[in-house]
Design a protein that fits this description.
With 503 residues, the protein is α+β, with helices and mostly antiparallel strands. The chain has a domain at 63-81 and 426-500: Beta-clip-like, CATH 2.170.270.10. 44% of the residues lie in helices and 10% in strands. The chain is built from 17 helices and twelve strands. The strands form four sheets. It has a four-stranded mixed β-sheet. Helix 8 runs antiparallel to helix 12, helix 9 (255-281) runs antiparallel to helix 10 and helix 9 packs across helix 13. The protein starts with 15 loop residues before the first helix and ends with a helix.
Length: 503
């Protein structure tokens, strides 16, 4: 892949807000002052009880994470909560998880039955799980339905589809059996060893989001979802606009949903801060407009301002099948795709007080932040653990259990082990720099059952030493590593790369 190159600055933006709010946009995108950055990360580390690390500026090389104590090999270095995250749309067929903390919810029976039923309805890992519902008497809104497709559109099975179809045996289980599993009328043996939190519905009544607790539901509602909910409690025009935005994101790139969550976060936090100011200090509306309003706006944006970002269409690496001479048209297409998404989002949740957030410049930088940090959200499946548990039982118990479990395992095929997958922005992990010979790695332990990022020491780390992770498979040859790292906009010059670099 070729290195990303910025588009010609003379290319005019199709978004009028870019010029109308140019000064405010520049302030939002300006790097935070070093002291403000230090204070923010020190507070974040204290709140998350990660006292063994510090975030420091590396001048022109951005930030880095350094050990503030000695770490032993295998020791936990960091457990980081996401600022914003979203499960991949296609993954929602396979895994029912809390939309806030991303732990699995319901029951083993519900996870298995729901997945097989949705697959039998025509959904697969290549189809999105949207705003329809499969209802049952004991579990609410835990299914989905296919997007309506053009009647004349042919369904083409690519190699990945064919492989998935091959690996999953044709289900011989009836709809009635699967419904009984979902409803709780049919229980599988030993599932009490794998108790999951109950399914809590969205406060706004939408059928897309589910939670593990009222606390998660309320936190997600206050932080993001109250602006993005498509439930019946939302006005019909806004709901229709949101559904158009989500459908477009699912059809093109679901990173747009993450960008929408970031914008919603900033708007809701701004309104909360403004409400506190008005209630606590009796500020008049005129006072807010004249002085405090943009300061509150900057404060609400502060967590996002800390993330390294560039415009999406500038930082994305040029694919191998795009010639260098076609780079500018390619980047223009990416920009236009982002603008189309932004217009749909603007139709749904535009707030005049927060107009700069709906500029293409801001939207592009938010998406670019995810592109450059590219932090995966992964949560292991309890369904996989369950079938492994059954397989490890003593022979008599195993044979008896498999009389019930074997048909479901056969129907799932290799898909029994599919984990929850998505994309997230982790404020502390995102500060960790890459090395092809890292001293730490992202690694989920058995007890890590939610969406938090977990970093483990690969070797002893001394106090004051920078903590590095690998963004790619560090065992690849030098040329392949550098090509993959082009996605992040840099060439690696670590010790390993320096030794392997051809003269």
């Amino acid at each position: 892949m070729a290195m990303a190159m910025a588009m010609d600055s003379s290319s005019s933006s199709p978004c009028s807000l870019d010029s109308e709010y140019a000064e405010q946009i520049a302030a939002l995108l300006a790097p935070p002052p070093p002291q403000l950055s230090d204070d923010y990360y020190d507070k974040l580390i204290e709140d998350r009880k990660c006292q063994g690390i510090r975030v420091k500026d590396k001048n022109k090389f951005g930030k880095g994470v350094y050990a503030d104590m000695e770490f032993k090999e295998g020791e936990l270095v960091l457990k980081d909560e996401m600022l914003a995250a979203a499960q991949h749309s296609s993954n929602k067929v396979d895994c029912l998880v809390c939309s806030h903390c991303f732990c699995y919810i319901g029951s083993i029976e519900l996870q298995i039955g729901r997945k097989l039923l949705l697959q039998d309805m025509g959904l697969s890992d290549k189809k999105e799980c949207h705003h329809g519902t499969y209802s049952s008497t004991s579990e609410e809104s835990c299914g989905a339905e296919l997007l309506e497709e053009d009647e004349n559109e042919d369904t083409v099975m690519d190699d990945d589809d064919a492989e998935s179809s091959h690996n999953r045996k044709e289900s011989c289980l009836s709809k009635e059996v699967l419904e009984s599993l979902i409803n709780g009328d049919l229980s599988l043996p030993y599932t009490k060893q794998f108790v999951l939190p109950p399914v809590i519905s969205c406060p706004g009544g939408c059928e897309e989001e589910h939670y593990c607790s009222k606390l998660c539901a309320e936190s997600d509602w206050e932080s993001f979802h109250s602006l993005l909910c498509t439930g019946e409690k939302v006005g019909s025009s806004r709901r229709a606009a949101l559904l158009k935005f989500i459908e477009h994101a699912n059809r093109t790139n679901d990173i747009f949903i993450l960008a929408a969550k970031v914008i919603s976060y900033a708007i809701l936090k701004y309104k909360k801060l403004r409400g506190h100011l008005e209630d606590g200090k009796q500020k008049t509306r005129l006072d807010l407009m004249n002085g405090s309003k943009f300061s509150l706006f900057l404060e609400s944006w502060k967590p996002i301002s800390m993330g390294f970002k560039r415009r999406w269409w500038d930082c994305i690496a040029l694919p191998d099948d795009v010639a260098v001479c076609d780079e500018t048209p390619f980047r223009m297409q990416i920009r236009d795709l982002a603008y189309a998404s932004l217009q749909l989002l603007k139709d749904a949740i535009f707030d005049p007080e927060c107009a700069p957030l709906f500029s293409l410049e801001i939207y592009g930088h938010i998406i670019g932040m995810f592109e450059l940090n590219n932090l995966d959200l992964v949560v292991a499946s309890p369904v996989e653990d369950y079938f492994i548990y059954i397989d490890d039982l003593p022979v008599p118990e195993k044979e008896e259990a498999e009389k019930l479990t074997r048909p479901f395992l056969d129907a799932l095929g290799d898909d029994y082990s599919v984990c929850c997958e998505g994309t997230a922005f982790f404020p502390l992990q995102s500060c960790m720099n890459h090395s092809c010979c890292p001293n730490a790695k992202a690694f989920k332990r058995d007890e890590d059952r939610d969406g938090k990022a977990v970093i483990i020491a690969l070797q002893p780390i001394s106090k004051g030493e920078e903590i590095t992770i690998s963004y790619i498979d560090e065992d690849l040859p030098y040329g392949e590593r550098q090509a993959l790292l082009a996605d992040y906009g840099f060439r690696c010059t670590c010790e390993k790369c320096s030794d392997e670099k051809e003269p």
